[in-house]
Design brief:
Helix content: 10-25%
Number of helices: 6
Strand content: 25-35%
Largest sheet: 6 strands, antiparallel
Radius of gyration: 25 Å
Length: about 325
Amino acid sequence: MSYTAGETILDDHYESFLNGASAGAYGINHVGGTGSGEYGLGQTHLVSVTAGQTITASQWNALFTQMDNIANHTNDTLTSTTARSAGDSLAIVSALQTDLNTLAASVAAGSPSASARGEGSELQSSVSSTRWNGSHIVEHSITFASNIQLRYFFNGGGAMRVKLTRNGNGGGSATSKDSSVDEMITALGSFDLKQTTSSRSGSGETLTTDGSATGVRDLGTGYTTLIRLTQSSGSYTSMYLQVEAKLNAAIGSATVVTMKYSLFDPDGTDNTYTSGNLSSVDVNAEFIGITDFGTFTNNPSTAQGLASVGAISSSAVVSNNTA
């Protein structure tokens, strides 16, 4: 039903503003409360009304306040939520529903414009064997207490993050192969798995596989490649870095997100120099030093409007192999 200025807004339409759950008619409890699917932030539900009930100014203001709180987190601009007193008129309903749909779109996208979030401390670190020349492959997982917490975390702008570092030279001096790894580290930067997308903060090297349009909601129970970078600027152009991810169940019931990090050095010409022919050459001059995959989370916070946010329950190293 559409309205014109001066008409009475019915109680069942106010109820829809609270609990609507269909496309184009989302209510605040579905968007910011428990919700389902890509909706829900875990905020307290506003109380439903009964047929024939007169909607008070305080009830309207409770709706507007909840909308403003979520908009403050998502950084959306609303036009219909000015506080009202008894006897005041309300804005046209279409403006109010438009604002609710704007909030719904932001939450469904994982609150991409939210600034109330920050990187937590490193959850897991997996270090390679000293000096290697084949591959370093790691799996790390984060676990949520329930699928609802997983939804609240990613809906609110949370992300699972990986960083690769090179901790040392493994007892020798840095080699040209180490320099190639350092270039890969710079190109990756911080890599985030988010609600509907994934992204790296770095740049450079050859983007062989671009999974930036893939987020946690697109994952299944088998690994999906999110990014594959191939060395292009250094001496070892067969070297590549890959990030994959999977869930432990369908997105509607999943509680565990596992990411797989792989650094491959397919170059098969590596030599190990012996004491008889060193001539000041590092014994492992064509090997890679110590590499370290670290998992973090970029966590939504309550700093800009939300009363609570989703959070992980635990994390684990699933595997760590150097070959």
